[in-house]
Design a protein that fits this description.
Blueprint lengths: L7 E4 L7 E4 L1 H4 L2 H15 L6 E5 L2 H13 L2 E7 L7 E8 L2 E8 L8 E9 L3 H12 L3 E12 L11 E8 L1
Parallel strand pairs: 3-4, 3-7, 7-8, 8-9
Antiparallel strand pairs: 1-2, 4-6, 5-6
Helix pairs in contact: 2-3
Length: 171
């Protein structure tokens, strides 16, 4: 199956000059979505993770069904103030300014092998920050995976761990 046929592009979203790769059309096609999850599962299972982390918000859509398929736990990394209970924060720099990610303080046990998931890898900033947050709470990030990778932005070079993607598109 050609998953690229199930990705819609939207020009000038969220701002002029950006070509947005929309996975909602993939999610709407059950056979294509199942094929996507099966292929991601085959890529990350060899890393023998204990836990999958999804990055807000489309990373949740990828990590949750993968965790179910692989019989693993799932935890969320979100923007500041969106998780209940005690959280651990991680501030990271963006091109202009900074952002803050959080995880619930009891989401990762020390030494747990973690795979981090998102829908798309571009510059790698948020994925790298999530990997650093996993390390901060004493987890062991063993791999990352995304449905889509934008070529030419160097995102995977920033991660420091193996990264798997199913589709590559020009940036």
């Amino acid at each position: 199956m050609d998953l690229a046929q199930h990705i819609r592009t939207i020009p000038d979203f969220p701002k002029p000059g950006i070509l947005f790769y929309d996975i909602s059309t993939l999610l709407a096609h059950p056979q294509a979505w199942a094929y996507c999850i099966d292929n991601l599962a085959a890529l990350i299972a060899p890393h023998k993770p204990d836990l999958l982390i999804g990055i807000e918000s489309r990373g949740f859509l990828t990590a949750a069904p993968l965790a179910l398929k692989l019989g693993l736990g799932f935890a969320m990394v979100r923007k500041e103030g969106k998780l209940p209970g005690n959280t651990i924060q991680y501030r990271y720099d963006l091109e202009y300014g900074s952002d803050l990610l959080e995880i619930q303080s009891d989401a990762i046990k020390p030494g747990q092998r973690v795979v981090v998931l998102d829908d798309l890898l571009a510059t790698g900033g948020t994925l790298r920050a999530t990997i650093d947050l996993v390390r901060k709470v004493k987890g062991e990030p063993v791999a990352a995976a995304c449905i889509i990778e934008l070529d030419g932005l160097g995102g995977r070079d920033e991660l420091g761990i193996p990264c798997h993607t199913l589709l590559q598109f020009p940036a």
